[in-house]
Specification:
Two copies of one chain form a homodimer. By secondary structure, chain A is of the alpha+beta class. Chain A contains eight helices and nine strands. Chain A binds a DNA duplex through helix 6.
Chain lengths: ~230, ~230
DNA sequence: CGGTATATTGAAATTTCTCAAGGACTGTGG
DNA sequence: CCACAGTCCTTGAGAAATTTCAATATACCG
């Protein structure tokens, strides 16, 4: 398998675009081995809309055509290890790469679903519900790849990063987080997220994990299933 | 080809859910022959988020799994003719159904892209820009299937329907439409949309049609390419 | 230690919503 | 043909949510 270690980058003014260096296959897909990334668009006046987060184990259909035509970028938060895989190779002999195949299937299934859930989140929920919903989603996704402990997980995101995903100003994200803390639902300090009252969060956010297609994902743990190239 | 004529429904309090009656194939896809439809979610308090419009020629990946798990519905605006096609059959002999195959490819390519553009639209643009952007998108998509004349097209949507797609109240949609009219950009009366100043609209909306993957769609005209079953 | 990015809080400004009322259009039954 | 009901459109005015601006505080890094 052509494992191709990719660059990690320092954070600076938001996310760094992943540069697809060298001779990447035309139908290459990007897999996150370690660290966080996101898809995002840039609009006028430096505004940025984060379209979705990518956590370890996630696959990003980074066909170059999609990247240029779809009009969005992929960027990282802090040091990140990634690999570019040949889509053809995985598809041609799926039995050789069962975990990757499953990850790919989940990705194709969940991508659209998550994008549509985000439309709903940004469009229909209040700031309070919105933050709660994102917190719920991230926790569940991280839990699935074994990156949570008890009710806690690491989210290497600033309040501005959250705001750009939720279409809220960083100031308002701050106020909402404070309220969530005062309400005893969750705390978020120094990139550490703690869900104090998970069921209440789910209820308030109107969170139904069905859109994540969890059963299709099983428990892929990137660190154990994939031989990672060190960055 | 198993053409299966489906029901048309009267509009009432928003969109009517398409019921997939009878023995639909597990991997059936829905194609809009005539009329308008949309994907939508329903939240608490009767709020509805429209996730995307479906115009004639559009294909809706209505795998039952997606429908139930993705958590959204498909509904129609007014009388609509649809057909359910067997995905396997099209994929197994694409040379028999070139237009359908192309439509399917476009659909898979553009679906995700459009969903992400909508996140951006709802999240980052002002009400004015948002309405302008939706207008631009709908016009281009209808133009592609020959449903426009000059700068005019029919959009069988109420201001509330637009609001549910844009995450705006119908009252505010009304005010924005008035402003667009006063500014000489577009008018929308009795379901007739007229783009008075298309380039200005594009500029204001920040509309870049790349996300629609137009070149992949070519000019599919549903009424000429598909033998429609009458409803 | 100084410099930079991030977090926190207050207050004013802005956008958008909700509520409310009247007008326009459509179809139905008498 | 008219009256009626229902939905949609239109406009105003006050309310609510969120943003922006501004100032300070805190943490991190060389």
């Amino acid at each position: 398998m052509t494992l191709r270690s990719a660059l990690s980058a320092q954070r600076r003014h938001g996310s760094n675009q992943i540069s697809v260096a060298g001779t990447s296959p035309a139908n290459g897909v990007l897999i996150i081995l370690n660290g966080f990334a996101c898809r995002y668009k840039v609009l006028h006046a430096g505004r940025r809309q984060i379209l979705g987060y990518l956590v370890p184990g996630d696959i990003c259909g980074l066909r170059l055509s999609t990247l240029s035509r779809g009009g969005y970028y992929v960027g990282t938060f802090g040091p990140t290890e990634t690999a570019i895989l040949s889509l053809e190779r995985i598809l041609s002999c799926p039995e050789l790469y069962p975990n990757l195949t499953r990850a790919l299937q989940w990705s194709m299934l969940a991508e659209e679903s998550i994008a549509r859930e985000w439309v709903t989140n940004v469009g229909q929920r209040t700031a309070y519900e919105r933050v709660a919903h994102l917190i719920c989603e991230m926790f569940v996704r991280l839990q699935l790849v074994g990156l949570t402990h008890d009710n806690q997980c690491t989210l290497p995101l600033t309040q501005r990063d959250l705001g750009d995903a939720l279409s809220l100003s960083s100031v308002h994200v701050n106020r909402v987080l404070r309220q969530l803390r005062l309400d005893g639902l969750a705390t978020f300090h120094h990139s550490e997220l703690v869900l104090t009252d998970r069921s209440a969060l789910h209820r308030i956010a109107g969170f139904d994990s069905a859109y994540l297609h969890l059963q299709a994902r099983s428990c892929i743990r990137p660190s154990t299933n994939i031989t990672a190239a060190s960055a």
